[in-house]
Design a protein that fits this description.
- The structure is a single chain.
- The protein is α/β, with parallel strands linked by helices and about 450 residues long.
- It contains 18 helices and 17 strands.
- It has four domains: about 100 residues, Arc Repressor Mutant, subunit A (Orthogonal Bundle); about 150 residues, Rossmann fold (3-Layer(aba) Sandwich); about 70 residues; about 80 residues, Arc Repressor Mutant, subunit A, CATH 1.10.10.10.
- This is Putative ATPase.
- One of its GO terms (molecular function) is DNA binding.
- It holds the Pfam family Trans_reg_C.
Length: about 450
């Protein structure tokens, strides 16, 4: 069975997590999408409330009212009852049933080649080491909901790309690098040669692919303007850097947009550090209305409600949510992983548990890449790339509860490694987005994200 379904005017692509109507992608929350998939995969059968909760809220304990809220939202999206159309039937005391005529489309129809992917001029390339050649396929990463707090950053990114042959989006794990790159592909003016989107997260080396990959891209580019997006470069940066340099020196019609937790350090590279989501400052009491003006708080409440939290932000909880967002440095992934536990522990409980080891293992959305499944997995991805000395020095820096100076960091680790080695390691950890740099009153201060400090103290 393929993972593509058609019913009424809708097409459902479960693997891409896309619902379309008339070729247009419909924005919807992940919970409603999961519930739709659960019912579509069992057409004509009653899917119980308990089964829907297990499918849409894995590993979470939520009230049945959350199912009813999401089901009402899903019915509005589908237009149930409009023009006599009925897609989902309620079975009193038992659950819900998908009742519309449904077609399971053959695998050949699942590329969406004639819909929005061609319209947005995006080709997604999954690199697979098959006979030493990459396998290209059509599958644009489509946003499931409007980005929160990123519109201004997209404008900045678009301007930066205009004047660069190679632009690298850099930032910590979960900062939103891939999201920004994918959104940019959908907002750029159409290029004659289109866009190639390459996800490198699943490969361990691109060295064997170098020559075939270069030749294939150069053949595709020819003399047409094209954008090559290389996503998740940090673990293969040493192989990707010379490949990119050769591509850029071989043609003037190609631009490269890369995402990485550290720079590629290629000639002509321009960096775009991903800014954190806007957070409330530490300036005394804050009301819910004031807090909700900041994107980080908006994202927290959006993810909390997706996780089953069914109350709006009140003045009593606004300071706690603002403090959580500040502790997480406005990192979208970290905020989402924490916020989805608000229904289970409450906002005050989440704030209290944030500094414990439990927070490292809180799981996020089931469709997320494995490296984004938990805060621990995200940090594993980064820290497993470190040399033993860098890992040890990061562990030493975990003893600082807040900001610290470079001199204090050197003093903490120098007895074991020496001043020069520690200074080198700290520079590398900053470059790899594991240490944040802040300007406080004209002085340079360093800081570890709370989850990074906890991870370094307990895992390294």
């Amino acid at each position: 069975m393929s993972e593509t379904y058609s019913f009424g005017p809708f097409q459902l692509y479960t693997q891409l997590r896309v619902l379309e109507r008339g070729g247009a992608v419909i924005a919807m929350g992940s919970r409603a999408f999961d519930m739709l998939v659960a019912m579509v995969q069992r057409p004509g059968e009653v899917v119980s409330h308990r089964e829907l909760m297990a499918f849409a809220w894995p590993e979470l304990v939520v009230e049945e009212s959350n199912v009813r809220v999401q089901m009402a939202k899903l019915r509005r999206i589908l237009g149930c009852g409009r023009d006599g159309m009925q897609y989902i039937a309620s079975v009193s005391g038992r659950g819900y049933c998908f009742v519309a005529p449904l077609r399971n489309l053959p695998a050949a129809s699942t590329s969406i080649a004639d819909t929005h992917l061609v319209d947005t001029h995006v080709v997604h390339a999954d690199i697979a080491e098959r006979h030493g050649r990459p396998a290209w396929r059509r599958a644009a990463p489509a946003p499931l909901s409007p980005p929160i707090g990123r519109c201004g950053h997209l404008v900045e990114l678009s301007r930066a790309l205009q004047g660069a042959r190679l632009l690298t989006i850099v930032g910590a794990g979960g900062a939103g690098k891939t999201t920004l790159a994918a959104l940019l592909c959908h907002t750029l003016p159409a290029l004659e040669g289109g866009t190639l989107f390459v996800d490198l997260s699943s490969v361990t080396t691109v060295a064997p692919l170098g020559e075939p990959l270069v030749n294939e891209i150069l053949h595709t580019v020819a003399s047409r303007r094209m954008l090559l997006v290389l996503d998740n470069c940090e673990h293969v940066a040493g192989d990707i850097a010379p490949l990119v340099e050769r591509l850029l020196s071989s043609t003037t019609s190609l631009q490269v947009l890369a995402t990485s937790r550290e720079p590629l350090r290629v000639r002509g590279e321009r960096l775009y550090p991903v800014p954190p989501l806007g957070m409330p400052p530490m300036t005394g009491p804050i009301t819910a209305r004031q807090a909700m003006a900041f994107p980080a708080v908006q994202l927290f409440m959006d993810r909390a409600m997706e996780g089953g939290y069914d109350a709006p932000l009140g003045d009593d909880h606004a300071p706690a949510v603002a403090a959580i967002c500040r502790r997480l440095d406005g990192n979208p992934l970290a905020i989402g992983l924490v916020a989805c536990r608000a229904a289970l522990y409450g906002i005050d409980g989440v704030a209290e548990l944030l500094g414990t080891q439990l927070a490292l293992s809180w799981r996020g959305r089931r469709d997320a890449p494995a490296r984004h499944g938990t805060a621990e997995a995200t940090l594993d991805w980064s820290c497993n790339l470190l040399a033993a000395r860098d890992r040890r020095i990061l562990h030493c820096l975990a003893s600082f509860p807040g900001t610290f100076t470079i001199d204090a960091a050197v003093a903490a680790a120098a007895p074991e490694f020496g001043t020069f080695a520690v200074t080198q390691s700290i520079a590398g950890l900053i470059e790899k987005s594991l240490i944040a740099v802040q300007d406080i009153g004209g002085n340079t201060a360093l800081r570890l994200l709370d989850t990074t400090r906890l991870y370094a103290a307990t895992r390294l």
